[in-house]
């Protein structure tokens, strides 16, 4: 989302004399809400739209050169237009739940900045804007309407123009004609014919904007057109214009803005006044906008006006404005590259980003490298560009064969390698793992970048759970700056071109901006880590894990494609057999994969109970519904569940995994996301190897395709019940802790404690129920949820849960204390100090609040388990090296690590890995329960697990 900036031609022309700014507040609210990521105050109140609006106000207050201003809002949806046409705007959805509480806060923001804040019952903001624009024009004032709303374009006139703050462009007569095909004075007539589906303005059926413009340009105006409708040659169009003439006239009354509203605030009082600094600062603190507070206070300390348009001043928390002067340089000569390398060495820190041919780092070709040493100055070094369109003066001898001028790739990397591997120069990257892997894959061992800081991981450590951590999102969040999008330079869909074909002038702006924003984020986020007490989390858990994951992704795991192909054929055969059986049970053939057709078969044709239709009119046929029907003894839904499971295994795994095998290595190289889960857990993608089913026989078979290279074995080492052990430790449940110390079956122990059954007399069903409770409690399971799991009534399940809490009161205490702490601070912490923010913990909606409370209970447990295995992963490679062992760590699947090990080193490697994993919490945390790591080996992952 772009900050509101005043167009230079307007400020120069007006110099503030007799100039009125009318800001369409309601339009900007929705744009800010949808443009910015989710943000929440510590009490759970959503604030992203407030943040975006406040940014705009700060910029407005600083930049405006006018003597009159107002921000104007809509009130309730019903206005005088609903008296004309009852269904006006009736099709609009209610505002999103997360936006509703922000409406009043945004109005508070406007008042805090001492800007007139206007609204009137019965009228839309557009009507007030039209009225003030007319009044100002009659007084000879110039008017700027700050909005992109097409409905306001009818007001554009001599002395009245618009400014779109999102696209940073002025809107005059030419832009109106481009939009509507007519001048501003005829926009109402065009809209009356075309209607507006957004506002439920009916118009005339079959006539769109283009046709409406042609008709109005030909006949002059709406009344003339309707009077002469019989002359229209096209029969259907003629018929509609005659039949719906009155509807067009009604539409005109709906779209024509009312410019004679008896406004309550006279134009003379809409004067520009300086805000009270203390009031503004109080509002920013109430909203907990830490960065805006820092910017505002920094400006105050320098004696200047507050500015949030592009970031804080030098010396404050962040960096200079990205909207200010920037100097981006295209590096095409060796001498220029050497100069940038010298600058990086002199600075001691350099931000680095790569441009490539693919999002898959193991298949990506390096296209270019960008660097930045200080905010506002960056360079782009093209290395693999080909001739694109409109290269212009950038064309020349590339040294890489035909193409634009650029330093030969090998020569450039040869110069960059000593810098990137220099331990005295810090390399700052965003999502460093990707760039490290791309650079490490080069010839002669590639470039092994070190040391590294990762701004994505810093943001994750500071505010995990509050928002995403992509570069574009963080640039928007911290600086109010909208980065150039990939689609802006490469296009999208069928017309998309590879980055290597992008003209170098466009490539420069796109690539250099990424490096520039990365260095700005580093200067903003790095100082926040020690202030928040989170530097240790970053330095011991996230930062050292980056090279570990890079090595794992580069190593990949060998997969036998023939095993997968054979399984796929078997699944195909079984799917065909199941389809025959399903159609026989249904009494007719239908598309089994169509929820709509399945619902009609189950609930209309067969008359099974429990059919519920959704908004689309189709029956819901999710897994829970089918499972309920199957449990009642109905064969068809049971067979459909079998069909769905096999179909998913085939499409998602046996077919897709063959395609995922890298043709150069014969291995699958998954990518790990370090910031995908708020609790600290890693997630796997492209392909996801963490979700391969292991509870079904068919799912387990898929792991037989993951094999060791000849002369090696796969070693799987898995933490045993780590989350239950952490529950016992964190909640301080002495009987559970003792059971773990004594090596007793924890589920049998729980069953014995809760149900009063001696261990020697424990039966499988009672143990299974206790196991469901043990794991369910961690995730805040309800009586209804537990009842579904163990096949009993909710009332019986509730008694089980109550008995559990009665026997282990520490669990209940832990849950209550954790929820209370989350409500107070907005986050919970793991035993290693990681913060997991819980934004909905104070939500007014009971369902969402309950979901957040369950997340708060689970996060310290799941997060602590994630931290334990991360600590182990960081220590394992050095431990293996110290022992002279050649094993490679290949995969992490939640609590399990998978290694490829020379057969002769299996025993020793197992010993080292188990020792490291079982002592991973030390010396930071001394657990009151032992960690146990179980190990298995085999020729395949299935055998080892």
From TrEMBL:
SMART domains documented for this protein: 35EXOc, 53EXOc, HhH2, POLAc
Domain 3'-5' exonuclease: 328-530
Complex and partners: Single-chain monomer with multiple functions.
Occurrences of domain DNA-directed DNA polymerase family A palm (ranges): 699-905
GO BP: any one term: double-strand break repair
EC number annotated for this UniProt entry: 2.7.7.7
MF terms in GO: 3'-5' exonuclease activity; 5'-3' exonuclease activity; DNA binding; DNA-directed DNA polymerase activity
Family recorded in the similarity comment: Belongs to the DNA polymerase type-A family.
Keywords: DNA damage, DNA repair, DNA replication, DNA-binding, DNA-directed DNA polymerase, Exonuclease, Hydrolase, Nuclease, Nucleotidyltransferase, Transferase
Record-given protein name: DNA polymerase I
Role according to the record: In addition to polymerase activity, this DNA polymerase exhibits 3'-5' and 5'-3' exonuclease activity.
Class of enzymatic activity (EC top level): transferase
Gene name per UniProt: polA
NCBIfam families cross-referenced by the UniProt entry: pola, PRK05755.1
5'-3' exonuclease domain segment(s): 18-273
């Amino acid at each position: 989302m772009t900050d509101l900036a005043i167009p230079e031609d307007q400020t120069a022309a007006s110099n503030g004399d007799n100039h009125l700014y009318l800001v369409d507040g309601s339009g900007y609210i929705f744009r800010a809400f949808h443009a910015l990521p989710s943000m929440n105050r510590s009490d759970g109140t959503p604030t992203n739209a407030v943040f975006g609006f406040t940014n705009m106000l700060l910029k407005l207050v600083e930049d405006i050169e006018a003597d009159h201003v107002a921000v104007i809002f809509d009130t309730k949806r019903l206005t005088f237009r609903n008296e004309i046409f009852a269904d006006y705007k009736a099709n609009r959805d209610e505002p999103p739940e997360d936006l509703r509480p922000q409406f009043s806060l945004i109005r508070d923001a406007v008042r805090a900045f001492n800007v007139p804040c206007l609204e009137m019952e019965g009228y839309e903001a557009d009507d007030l804007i039209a009225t003030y624009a007319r009044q100002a024009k009659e007084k000879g004032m110039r008017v700027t309407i700050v909005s992109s709303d097409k409905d306001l374009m009818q007001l554009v006139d001599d002395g009245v123009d618009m400014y779109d703050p999102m696209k940073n462009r002025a809107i005059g007569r030419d832009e109106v004609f481009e939009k509507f095909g007519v001048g501003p004075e005829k926009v109402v007539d065009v809209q009356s014919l075309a209607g507006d589906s957004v506002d439920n303005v009916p118009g005339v059926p079959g006539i769109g904007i283009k046709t409406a413009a042609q008709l109005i340009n030909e006949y002059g105006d709406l009344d003339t057109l309707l009077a002469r409708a019989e002359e229209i040659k096209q029969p259907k169009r003629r018929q509609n214009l005659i039949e719906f003439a009155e509807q067009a006239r009604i539409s005109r009354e709906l779209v024509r803005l009312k410019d004679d509203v008896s406004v309550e605030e006279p134009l003379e009082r809409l004067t520009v006044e300086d805000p009270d600094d203390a009031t503004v600062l109080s509002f920013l603190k109430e909203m907990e906008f830490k960065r805006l507070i820092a910017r505002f206070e920094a400006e105050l300390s320098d004696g200047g006006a507050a500015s949030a348009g592009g970031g804080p001043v030098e010396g404050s928390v962040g960096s200079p404005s990205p909207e200010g002067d920037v100097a981006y340089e295209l590096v095409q000569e060796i001498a220029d590259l050497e100069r940038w390398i010298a600058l990086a060495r002199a600075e001691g820190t350099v931000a680095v980003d790569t441009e490539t041919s693919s999002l898959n780092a193991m298949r990506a070709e390096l296209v270019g490298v960008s660097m930045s040493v200080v905010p506002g100055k960056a360079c782009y070094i093209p290395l693999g560009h080909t001739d694109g369109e409109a290269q212009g003066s950038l064309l020349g001898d590339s040294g890489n064969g035909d193409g634009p001028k650029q330093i030969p790739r090998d020569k450039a990397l040869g110069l960059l390698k000593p810098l990137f591997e220099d331990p005295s120069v810090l390399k700052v990257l965003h999502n460093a793992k990707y760039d490290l892997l791309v650079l490490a894959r080069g010839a002669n061992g590639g470039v092994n970048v070190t040391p590294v800081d990762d701004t994505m991981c810093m943001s994750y450590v500071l505010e995990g759970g509050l928002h995403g951590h992509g570069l574009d999102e963080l640039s928007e969040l911290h600086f109010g700056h909208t980065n150039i999008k990939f689609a802006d330079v490469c296009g999208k869909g069928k017309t998309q071109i590879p980055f290597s074909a992008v003209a170098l002038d466009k490539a420069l702006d796109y690539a250099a901006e990424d490096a520039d924003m990365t260095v700005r984020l580093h200067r903003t986020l790095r100082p926040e880590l020690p202030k928040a007490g989170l530097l240790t989390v970053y330095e011991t858990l996230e930062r050292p894990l980056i090279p570990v994951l890079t090595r794992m992704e580069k190593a990949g795991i060998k997969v036998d494609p023939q095993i997968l192909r054979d399984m796929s054929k078997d699944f195909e055969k079984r799917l065909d057999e199941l389809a025959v059986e399903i159609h026989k049970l249904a009494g007719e053939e239908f598309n089994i994969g169509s929820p709509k057709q399945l619902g009609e078969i189950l609930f209309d044709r067969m008359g099974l109970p429990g059919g519920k239709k959704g908004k689309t009119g189709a029956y819901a046929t999710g897994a829970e519904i089918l499972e309920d029907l199957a449990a009642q003894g109905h064969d068809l839904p049971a067979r459909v569940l079998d069909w769905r499971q096999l179909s998913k295994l085939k499409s998602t795994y046996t077919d897709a995994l063959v395609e995922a095998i890298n043709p150069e290595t014969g291995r699958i190289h998954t990518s790990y996301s370090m910031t995908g889960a708020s609790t600290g857990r890693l997630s796997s993608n492209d392909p996801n190897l963490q979700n391969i089913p292991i509870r079904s026989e068919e799912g387990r078979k898929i792991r037989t395709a993951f094999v060791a290279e000849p002369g090696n074995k796969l070693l799987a080492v898995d933490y045993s019940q780590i989350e239950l052990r952490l529950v016992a430790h964190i909640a301080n449940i002495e009987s559970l802790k003792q059971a773990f110390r004594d090596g007793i079956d924890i589920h049998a122990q729980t069953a014995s404690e809760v149900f009063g059954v001696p261990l020697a007399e424990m039966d499988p069903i009672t143990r299974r129920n206790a196991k469901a409770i043990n794991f369910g409690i961690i995730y805040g399971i309800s009586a209804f949820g537990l009842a579904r799991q163990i096949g009993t009534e909710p009332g019986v399940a509730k008694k089980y849960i109550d008995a559990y809490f009665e026997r282990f009161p520490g669990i209940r205490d832990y849950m209550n204390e954790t929820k209370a702490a989350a409500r107070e601070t907005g986050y919970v912490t793991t035993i290693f100090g990681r913060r997991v923010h819980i934004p909905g913990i104070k939500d007014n909606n009971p369902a969402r609040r309950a979901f957040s409370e369950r997340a708060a209970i689970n996060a310290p447990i799941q997060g602590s388990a994630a931290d334990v295995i991360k600590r182990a992963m960081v220590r394992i490679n050095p431990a293996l090296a110290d022992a002279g062992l050649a094993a490679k760590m290949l995969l992490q699947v939640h609590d399990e690590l998978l290694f490829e090990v020379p057969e002769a080193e299996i025993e020793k490697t197992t010993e080292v890995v188990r020792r490291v994993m079982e002592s991973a919490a030390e010396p930071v945390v001394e657990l009151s329960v032992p960690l146990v790591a179980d190990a298995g080996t085999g020729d395949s992952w299935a055998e080892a697990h």
